[in-house]
C-alpha cells in the first residue's frame, strides 16, 4: 500500500459511511454529509472550539463550518455557548447527551452498505472485523497525532 492507495481507501470508506447514515426526514441542507462528518469529528477531537479554529483545521471556509455547525446543532449533536473570554466568539462542543437523531445515526447498520460494496458478500464478517481493527488504531484521534 502506498499513499495514493491509502487516500483512495479513505475516500471509499467515507462514501460507504455516508451511504450508511440514515437521511430520511432530515430535509435538504446546503452542506454535504461528508462536510458535516468532518466538522463533527473535529469538534469531538477539539471541544469548546470556535468556528475560526475548526475552519483552520479542516480547510473549510468559515461559512461552510458555520452551516455544518447549524446542521449539527439542529440534530442535537453539538451545543454552542458564548466564549466568556471573548463574547464575540461562539464555542462549539459535543452535546453531553445524545438526541434521538444522534442515537439513530449511531445505531445505523453498515451491513447492507458493505454487502452491496463487496465483490464477495460472504466476506462481510471478515471485512467488518478488519474495519474494527482499523477503527481501534486509527480513529479520529489519529489525526491530532499527525497534525490534522
Explain this structure.
With 148 residues, the protein is mainly alpha-helical. Helix content is 57%, strand content 8%. The protein is built from 8 helices and 3 strands. Strands 1-3-2 form a 3-stranded antiparallel beta sheet. A hairpin with a 7-residue loop joins β2 (78-82) and β3 (90-94). The chain is globular, with a radius of gyration of 17 Å. The two termini are 21 Å apart. The model has no long low-confidence stretch (mean pLDDT 89).
How do the strands line up in the largest sheet? 1-3-2
Structural class by sheet pairing and helices: mainly alpha
Helix fraction by DSSP (H/I, runs of at least 4): 55-70%
Sheet having the most strands: 3 strands, antiparallel
**Head-to-tail CA distance between termini:** 21 Å
Report Rg: 17 Å
**Mean pLDDT across all amino acids:** 89
The gross shape turns out to be globular
Detail the poorly predicted runs. Answer: none
Q: Provide a count of the helices.
A: 8
Oligomer: single chain
Taken in chain order, the helices and strands follow as: HHEHHEEHHHH
What is the strand content?
5-15%
- Number of E-state strands: 3
Question: Which key phrases capture this entry?
Answer:
148 residues, 3-stranded antiparallel sheet, 8 helices
Draw up the topology in text.
Blueprint: H1 3-20, H2 33-45, E1 49-50, H3 51-58, H4 62-74, E2 78-82, E3 90-94, H5 100-106, H6 111-117, H7 124-137, H8 141-145
Antiparallel strand pairs: 1-3, 2-3
